[in-house]
């Protein structure tokens, strides 16, 4: 028997929670469905580093960073590269989101108890011309509490709405179909999965023990992307990036399977920009995995030397932290799906961080003492040292010849030539003491150290890689790590979904990654980082508020 509510939200991740709590705040009755258990509330946001893109924030101003909407707009448009007829709504979403990031985003979150770590990060620095890809200034604001800290305000609001009777969670409910009456989406149906107490992130049972049907005046699809489904990633892989990698690791759990995207498209929704995606190239295999093929992304500073699988240094400006998709395209053009960092203990101590809430216990646990130790410890942060010790992709040696030999052994080939690697490192080292260096990476290092945030906690003092005083030498084999779907369901600014006939599908909304974070792809081809969680917040809020107004 079908139950009736005002709005159904499919997906209990960040976008779904935001939409549901906005609906409840407007007095609407909402049911949130998720195929996972309650332990997975918050979805991928829980596992994130908690980075948020803000423009002209108090944190930026305190650090002497001068930012404004026009500069951010220039950076976004140069990065997105909108060039398709389908980019009409994505571009409108991008401009609306920029206004949100420059306006009420921070104060809206702060009123709910959200706080920000005071040092602003500088992601995706580009290195092309002023109208090209990249952030002109640091804009990556880390949530104090990382991913759990961004989920907590909405989880709390949701449980308050649950107590008041306005919000109902139905976990282990897998949606198999959208229902329609007279051309209007008015419900969902699917299977009830058996209870499974498996820990957050681990693969859960798919055994069905019942069926369900729900009716509502509107349905919001906030089911996430496809990053856990490598078959779908390869199926949608863009030819412009080269052949899809033979080997990838996963930055998201297996349940990020894209299944609901296929179901919604089959119901008539228009999916655009499906070939736009965001995968990292600094992935390392987790030595203590939670989900299948579990990978972690290194958040590197500017100093590691980066070599492709054949031992050639990546060309300018493809240095650490510069251009994720540019690096991906170059690496795949070599005919291989991995690359290498070579660095020193002094670099790893100061510059390496690992993406993810579980890899940053100091920030996640809101411990100022532990955070301060990042700058004072003799070694790298404990999670980084653990990877250095246990990680399958890390090699530590005192001698360069031994290091290169071990790199070849790990790769299972003899592609790296010691003399060629040595010559490139020695050439770089000759430039390091030159204030007028022509090596673009060294110029970037000096530029980074002009920013107080980088100088304090993210950029090592310039030194020679082969200086034993800064050893031992470290090599890291970098894998391609699946992560985000940049395309999605085409929506207007109220998150209403367009049908394949170009008309709005009555009763259907989409938010978060399923909507390309807004409009079907507000990032275009590339992202400036800190914009995925923000896209979930903004599109979830728009969807919830618009649906609340639409229902009777």
Automatic annotation (TrEMBL):
InterPro entries: FAD-dep_OxRdtase_2_FAD-bd, FAD/NAD-bd_sf, KsdD_DH, Succ_DH/fumarate_Rdtase_cat_sf. Residues 6-533 form the FAD-dependent oxidoreductase 2 FAD-binding domain. Its cofactor is FAD. GO terms for molecular function: oxidoreductase activity, acting on the CH-CH group of donors. Keywords: Flavoprotein, Oxidoreductase. Gene3D superfamilies: FAD/NAD(P)-binding domain, Succinate dehydrogenase/fumarate reductase flavoprotein, catalytic domain. NCBIfam families: PRK12834.1. This is FAD-dependent oxidoreductase 2 FAD-binding domain-containing protein. It comes from Bradyrhizobium erythrophlei. The lineage of its organism: Bacteria, Pseudomonadati, Pseudomonadota, Alphaproteobacteria, Hyphomicrobiales.
């Amino acid at each position: 028997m079908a139950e009736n509510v005002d709005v159904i939200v499919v997906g209990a991740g960040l976008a779904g929670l935001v939409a549901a709590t906005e609906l409840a705040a407007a007095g609407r009755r909402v049911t949130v469905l998720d195929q996972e258990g309650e332990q997975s509330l918050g979805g991928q946001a829980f596992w994130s580093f908690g980075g948020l893109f803000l423009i002209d924030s108090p944190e930026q101003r305190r650090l002497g960073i001068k930012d404004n909407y026009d500069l951010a707009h220039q950076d976004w448009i140069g990065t997105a590269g909108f060039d398709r007829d389908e980019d009409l709504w994505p571009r409108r979403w991008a401009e609306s989101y920029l206004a949100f990031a420059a306006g009420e985003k921070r104060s809206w979150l702060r009123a709910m108890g959200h706080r920000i770590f005071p040092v602003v990060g500088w992601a995706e620095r580009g290195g092309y011309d002023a109208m090209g890809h990249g952030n002109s200034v640091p804009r990556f604001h880390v949530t104090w509490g990382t991913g759990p800290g961004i989920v907590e305000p909405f989880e709390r609001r949701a449980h308050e709405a649950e107590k008041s009777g306005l919000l109902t969670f139905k976990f282990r409910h897998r949606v198999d179909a959208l229902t329609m009456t007279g051309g209007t989406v008015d419900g969902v149906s699917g299977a009830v999965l058996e209870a499974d107490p498996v820990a957050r992130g681990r693969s859960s049972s798919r055994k069905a023990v019942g069926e369900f049907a729900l009716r509502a005046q509107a349905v919001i699809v906030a089911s996430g992307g496809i990053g856990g489904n490598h078959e779908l990633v390869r199926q949608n892989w863009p030819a412009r990036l080269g052949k899809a990698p033979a080997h990838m690791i996963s930055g998201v759990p297996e349940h990020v399977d894209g299944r609901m995207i296929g179901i919604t498209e089959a119901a008539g929704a228009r999916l655009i920009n499906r070939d736009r995606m965001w995968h990292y190239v600094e992935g390392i295999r987790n030595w203590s995995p939670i989900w299948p093929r579990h990978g972690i992304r290194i958040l590197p500073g500017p100093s590691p030397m980066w070599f492709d699988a054949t031992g050639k240094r990546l060309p300018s400006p493809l240095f650490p932290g510069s251009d994720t998709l540019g690096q991906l395209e170059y690496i795949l053009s070599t005919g291989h799906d991995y690359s290498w960092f070579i660095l020193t203990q002094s670099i790893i101590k100061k510059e390496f961080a690992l993406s993810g809430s579980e890899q940053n216990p100091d920030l996640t646990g809101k411990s100022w003492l532990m955070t301060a130790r990042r700058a004072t410890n003799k070694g790298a942060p404990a999670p980084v040292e653990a990877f250095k010790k246990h990680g399958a992709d890390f090699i530590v040696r005192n001698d360069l010849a031994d290091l290169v030999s071990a790199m070849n052994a790990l790769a299972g080939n003899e592609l790296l030539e010691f003399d060629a690697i040595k010559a490139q490192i020695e050439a770089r080292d000759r430039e390091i003491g030159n204030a007028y260096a022509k090596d673009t990476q060294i110029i970037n290092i000096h530029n980074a150290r002009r920013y107080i945030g980088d100088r304090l906690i993210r950029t090592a003092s310039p030194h020679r890689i082969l200086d034993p005083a800064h050893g031992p030498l470290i090599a890291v084999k970098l894998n391609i790590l699946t992560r985000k779907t940049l395309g999605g369901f085409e929506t207007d600014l109220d998150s209403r979904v367009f049908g394949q006939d170009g008309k709005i599908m009555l009763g259907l909304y989409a938010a978060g990654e399923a909507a390309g974070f807004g409009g079907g792809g507000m990032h275009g081809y590339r992202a400036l980082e800190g914009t995925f969680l923000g896209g979930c917040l903004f599109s979830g809020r728009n969807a919830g508020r618009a649906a609340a107004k639409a229902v009777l």
